Every structure is written in structure tokens, then in C-alpha cells.
Amino acid sequence: MIVSSGDGVAATRPTAPAERGDGVFGAPSTAAGEVADSSAPADGDVASGLATAAALLRVAGDVTLLAHVHPDADALGSALALGLALHRRGAAVRVSFGEPERAPESLIALDVAGLLVPATQVPAAPPLLVALDTGSVQRLGSLADRVRTAQAVLVIDHHITNTGFGTHNLVDPGAEATAVLVLRLLDELGVPLDADIARCLYAGLVTDTRSFRLASPATHSYAARLLAAGVHAEHEARNLFDTHPFSWLGMLAKVLARAELEPEAARGLGLVHTSVLASDVTGMRTEDVESVISLVRKSAEAEVAAVLKQIGEDRWSVSLRAKQHVDVGAAAVALGGGGHRLASGFTTTGRREDILAALRAALDTAPVIR
Length: 370
Ligand code: MN
What we know:
alpha/beta, inorganic pyrophosphatase (n-terminal core), Diaminopimelate Epimerase, Chain A, domain 1, 2 domains, five-stranded parallel β-sheet, 35% helix, disordered N terminus, binds manganese (II) ion
């Protein structure tokens, strides 16, 4: 936990955070779910960070909660869970994100109180801004300027690459999901879990832990509380992971047929990659496109999986996953992106072959995880 509150709850900014050094952007928009244990904070730091965040929120009458661009279930679920709790105790609350215009279809149902607003309706100078699951100012996209104009900025995040851009930062790279931090914050605030809040938190938890493969015993206990509060696990998982349009099958057939295995790449541990052309996914949802990496990564012969998604003529968004040995977070940072050690991404411009060449080079120099 990195906690920097300094001068207390009513603190205003000493400097403009957006101007602090921050070279990390383009982290993955999908489930990340990697736990960085090396920088796990001391328990006392966690407790004081939660207390500071709770003190800030307890007196707030107007709260703007932001998820990162192309929000995933952890970002949006965390923002909506905290937003619902604050809304129910009478605060003016809105939840938003910089882009795209609409939230992923599979997450819209979480917004039972109508807290989601378009980015264009976010106040120019919010009294309190809360950025969730967002590792850097740039990851707020078109709303990044609010970090400068807000009176106070609370950052709640678990990315190891978080730059600490808030006036208050509740950052714990040891937490498997931002939803874990929000649940602990709700406990600190004395907010009882109800089914609506629990569903939002569960969405973040099940996604970022890769369906609890990466969840600690404590996090399984949190999940048990969410189920007891009314979450239907099978329903949520089916909606989040197991529902795609029929045309998704045809898209997969094309994209998976294009996959290539490079056994010598990634220090000889193997790289599998494919690309998703814009024409492959016309009319499809983000969820449908983001599912490709979860299939490609299953290749036994490759430690690292990469999916290059075409987002413009020569513009590519690249998702990276590693099984356990190669720090693809570091590789992504080297290529202008960020994320977690085993799940990361970057966005770049160029020819597909050139991007692959740069990726091979980055993987060959990325730290080995032992
Ligand atoms: Mn997350």
C-alpha cells in the first residue's frame, strides 16, 4: 500500500498531479488478475490508507467516480459499488469513464441506480474525484484533465505500475482486484453489503482473479460474503464470460486459424500470437474481442501469449499474458504500455511485422520471474 495523504482529509493539492512524471498507458482493458507480492505493503499502511480514504468519503456530499478507459468489470464494478454505497447515504454521485461512449453490455446491468453518466456530463471541476483501477492519469482518457481541476483526488488501485497521481492514494499491489480494496473500504465505512453492491464487487473479483484461480484465502472469504449477500455466481459468470453472439464462433475460426507459435521466442519459453483485424469484428462487442486472448493463452508450448487487435489503419492494441515466468508487465512498459506482471498491454502504431519484432525484442529482455 502506498498511502500519500500528507496533510489530512481536507487536503487540497500541493501541485498539479497531471504534471508529475507518468509514462505508463495502454494497459490492458480486460481481466488482469495478477498479484505482485514483492511490494506488498505492511498491514499498518493498509489500515491507515483505508482510514484516510474512509474519512474523506464520510463527509463528501458530491462524488465523481471514474473508471479507466475501456472499463473492465473491476474498474466499473468497483466504481459502481462505491457509488451505490455513497448514493444510498444521500451523496450526489456519478460514475463515468473517458471512452468509449458506452459501457460494455455485460456490465450495464450492474448500474441499478442509474449512476452512469456520459463523459460529457462529468463536472468541469468536481469537489471529489475518485479514480478506480486506474494506474495513471493517461488511463482516464478524455477525463484526465479532471485530475487537475478537482479539489481532491482519491486513487484506489492495485496496479503495481500506479503512479500515485491523487492527492490521496490507496494503492495496494498485493490486492488481487480493486474490488477487494473497495470492499475493505466499505467495511471501514460501516456500509452493509446488499445484493446490488455485492454483484458489482463480485464482477470485479471474479474477473481479476481469473475466476478465483489467483484469489488468496482472505479473498475467498470476501467472495463468500458476497454470495451470502445475494450474488448468484453461475449467473454472473455466464453473463461476464460465457455469453457471445453466434457470429463470435466465425470470428474465432478466422482469428485462431491465424495463430502462430514461436518456440524460440521469449527466451526460448515460447510465444504464441495472433491478430484480430478490424474487419473480423465488425459489429462485435469489446467482450467478444477480448475473449480471444483467453483462448490463445491456453497453448501449452508457449509461456507468453499476444493478441494484436487492429484499432485503426496502422494502429494496434496489443494484449500480453504470461503463464508464470516472463514479466510481460515490464515488456509492456518498454513498449509504452503497462499493467501487471502476468497480464499487460500496450497501444502502438506501425506494421504488424514491425510490432511483432519489437515485441520479440522486449520479451527477450523482460525480467524472468522465479
Ligand atoms: Mn483491476
